[in-house]
Specification:
This protein is mostly helical. The chain starts with a helix and ends with a helix. Helices cover about 80% and strands about 0% of the residues. It has 14 helices and no strands.
Length: about 375
Amino acid sequence: MQRSSGLQKYAFVLLSLVLTVVVLYYGRSLILLLISSGLLASLLFPVARRVERVAPKWAGALVATLVMLITVIGVFFLLGWQLTRFTDDLPALKEALAVKGDAFQNWISDQFHMSQREQVAWFNTRVSEVASTSGKVALSLFGMTGSALAAIVPLPVFVFLLILLRGKFKTFFGQLGETSDGVILHIMERISKLSSKYIQGVLLVVVILGVLNSIGFLILGLKYAILMGFVVGFLNVIPYVGVMIGSLLPVVLALITKDSMAYAVGAFGVCALTQFLENNFITPKIVGSSVSINPLASIVALLAAGSLWGVMGMLLAIPITGMLKVVCDSLPSLKPYGFLLGEETEYPEEQRIKLPFTRKPSASSSKGTQA
């Protein structure tokens, strides 16, 4: 009987996991829209509250949404201005890349006695192998990203409604939590605070890294220094993968546009220095422990979210995992999973999560326990 019940439990857990993955995959457009709008709404709550002191609720929600739209449009305008300059110089960059490629091929011929025709054949073979193994993955990745970007169009409407109706949602979670000692409202409040703090911290870190990288690239005299600086800063949002890709971009640009390898080394040095400052001083000071996820959990979440939702999933992997950790830490039955996701090295048995509206054990039950 025990073996049978264990198999039934395993089958139930496996079926639940499969159904969850199916729902997350096929409902990705709506899920990404709800998560993104919820994160932005939690970030804009303070703006709405300030306006509501002197104006109706709808005015606060409208002003907060307009602030978001103006900020996004301004960022895209600046990036578009830099990309226009990059597009104008694209023919010159292609010519410089061809010259550098010929020089590199000549160096390979001298060092390894391999003709340019053999180099081209070897390169084409490697490219075809990579394309055959990863082409479908990349196509599905960007296909999911395209559907996610299409779902962003109604994002301002969702943000406006979430800010306007936040009182209604608070009442809903409060009433829903009456059947489970009010823990649901407590969890949602913690998630809202965590989301707001994390998004604010990440945006500030991106701005600081963009400024520091731009200054370093300007000192080196690299073209498109501001564009490269903020692209590297933004890619830092994607853990591990974004840092590596962001560091390669200015190095490749320096190799193409400059005659000396020293500029490429300098560009890599700027990225390494800003990354060192970000890891040891900037992020710990600004973001702090708002999302304390260990590296293994971060990588697993990054790969899983990227497989399900594309690039948008990679951007949202860490905050979603942080929300999951809040839920696990707040429920005693799930607390071991929260410990597994977090950065704690020892299980804090002496620390108990105090849930609101919990009932103290009665005197009769405590006597029975002692007996």
